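Handout, section B. The chain below has 363 residues.
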Amino acid sequence: MGFASLRTAAFRNLADEEVDLRGKDIFLVGENGQGKSNFLEALYFCSYGSSFRGARDRDLARSGEKDFSAALRLEGSLHETVNLSYRDGKKAIHLDGKQIEDRKDLLQVAPSVIFSPDDMDFVSGSPERRRWFFDQTRSLWDPLYLEDLRRYRQVLKNRNAILRGGVYPPNPEVSATLEALDLQLVRYGLELSTKRQETAAQFSLVFESLYREISGLGGIGVQYRPSWKANTVPELLRHLEERRGSDFTMGSSMSGPHRDRYLFTREEREFSPQASTGQRRLLALLLRIAQIRSYRERTGKNPVLLLDDVLLELDPAKREKFLSVMPDYEQALYTFLPGEPYERYRSSDTMLYHVESGRLRVP
């Protein structure tokens, strides 16, 4: 499966035009602020129905506009077109001309993986950012995992609403409601924890080998640290009951999978706080490669790769090593500044576009 073309209308600063993408490697060359990352964002938006930058849908519209659209034509897929539009404050997703109600249905249609400078957040950022990465890793090949997350988050939202608006000890009616919610929270939460443990263990094996190959440093792994220490329904129900007073005081559920942590370790000790900037940058890049390899192992498919300025930060030696471990892919789109040595990586069939003021042009 590959991307054949992308047509945008009022998306960020991109020109309203259709761009041919029928190539395995596509280089987007231009100065900062000209639209290279916006073009990758439009592709990602067609893959997932959201921005990899975390932008709200309405903020994707060109300055002065309220509505926008992005339409992707596919090659080698069971589907031909993906069309997303935002009009009158509402997003609509059409697959082969038929509207779909849930963006999770896009996951198996046009999978892509973005390499972005913001990926450093997965290494140096908050626990929430690491959870997001590993949740996405699982969701790429297990769409039902999204349902697990949604069910858990809905119950958590309902439970927190009671905690914020109530007093302790609660009256019998509120207590009965909390007991019912706690049972759901535990059941859904245990399902998440089981899958997260499995995902982290499998991912760690792939990741350790990659990091050793590129850096020569062994013993690097990923550890999953669940917030709940118990792993049976009765034990966790007792735990939640014992913590209920403090949860009311804080107005929030203070334990559960929404507070799980993932650690990067070396020989069982946390690695990322002591790692150099270069080591953390390499961690972030290899996380994405490990994500792609995990996806391929589970599905037998190759995603489209979107690489946004990720080679810029690497020294020449690490850049060559990074490219040497790139997994198989259907298609890869790279962004470069004009002064970068992109010609060194170009082959005879590479598509090259110069990007200026939101327009992509063949030189």
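Note. The CA atoms of residues 68 and 196 lie 36 Å apart. Compare this with the example in section A.
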